[in-house]
Amino acid sequence: MHACLPLLRPSDFPAIVRDGLETVQVNLGYRCNQSCLHCHVAAGPQRKEAMDRPTVEAVLDFLRRSQAQVLDLTGGAPEMNPHFRYLVEAARGLGLKVIDRCNLTLLEEPGYEDLADFLAARQVDIVASLPCYLEDNVDRQRGDGVFQASLRALRRLNGLGYGVEGAGLVLNLVYNPQGPVLPPPQAELEADYRRELWTRHGVVFNRLYALANMPIQRFGSTLVSRGEFHPYLARLRAAHRPENLAQVMCRRLISVDWQGRVYDCDFNQMLGLPLGGAGTPPALADLAPDTLDTAPVATAAHCYGCTAGGGSGCGGALATMTDPSINTPGD
Question: 151 lies in a domain?
């Protein structure tokens, strides 16, 4: 795999400082039942990295010490970590909102048949990857049969109340472009998803998040191999919108890797960029929450992926697209 960090630095991306802490995002490991081309973690079935129980306890201790309100669980497939359910139970017991970033197809894997019921019983928000509402596009990006498996999972979640108005169980979907292009305006794409998934498949959801693909790990390496890395970076930089800087996720979030080390965001974690950009990544157990206030954020050229066009973050677009000429939808 091609190393992407040397291609992303130095960079003229604007300086950013933190603005409190709302979300602790935890990567529970890189094991996943899928191997997606756009995956910035390079997750897959053969990956062995997984957070152990003492590190899970360190996460819970930090949550008790901090003012964070949200625990955002990611991977790989975070549910494949053997301590996933314990962490969810404990965090909900602390009164935190818990988000599970689910790939949907895991709900059909042996040993996970009761996962949907577990999440619903604990009112865990689900953010589910569905890179298109068309079967061919999804299977091309994620593998044959993934779209139909995702539909079955979505119908099951709907049956439990997820995405259903008034039920109180949140189901948000995630769109990623299929190549080195920016996503379309989120509101328009959400309307398309809502119409197509309901009329074709009887599926409902709450929100759609349109996220740009980051030029790192598996996706970045693919761009290098195709000679598309620098053109994609140029596209992101040309579409930069300064007003998105106020809303980028790294201002109010920290990212914790499977070993308990802390970074400014999940993308920096995958690049090995330490918290604040200097030294080595601190251990969460040694981090004082109040030291994060107004601290600098480590940046490089990939950060333009969060500020280009409508913006991109863990909660979807950051702003309303006003200039469609700077955006090119995926096919």
Answer: yes
Q: Which positions ≥6 away from 46 have C-beta within 8 Å?
A: none
Q: Is-contact 221 2, C-beta < 8 A?
A: yes
| DSSP H helical ranges for 130-216 | 135-142, 146-160, 186-201
What integer is the mean pLDDT of 302-326?
A: 77
Look up the CATH number of the domain holding residue 211.
3.20.20
pLDDT tens, 264-304?
A: 999 999 899 999 988 899 999 999 999 999 999 999 999 99
Cα-based angle 99, 102, 107 (whole degrees, multiple of 5): 125
Question: Which residue, among 120, 43, 111, has the nearest Cα to 74 in the 3D structure?
Answer: 43
For residue 122, the enclosing domain spans: 5-326
Residues in CB range of 277: below 8 A, 6 or more apart:
296, 297, 298, 299
pTM for the model:
0.91
- Cα separation, 172 vs 270, in Å, equals 24
Q: Token digits for 226?
A: 């195709």
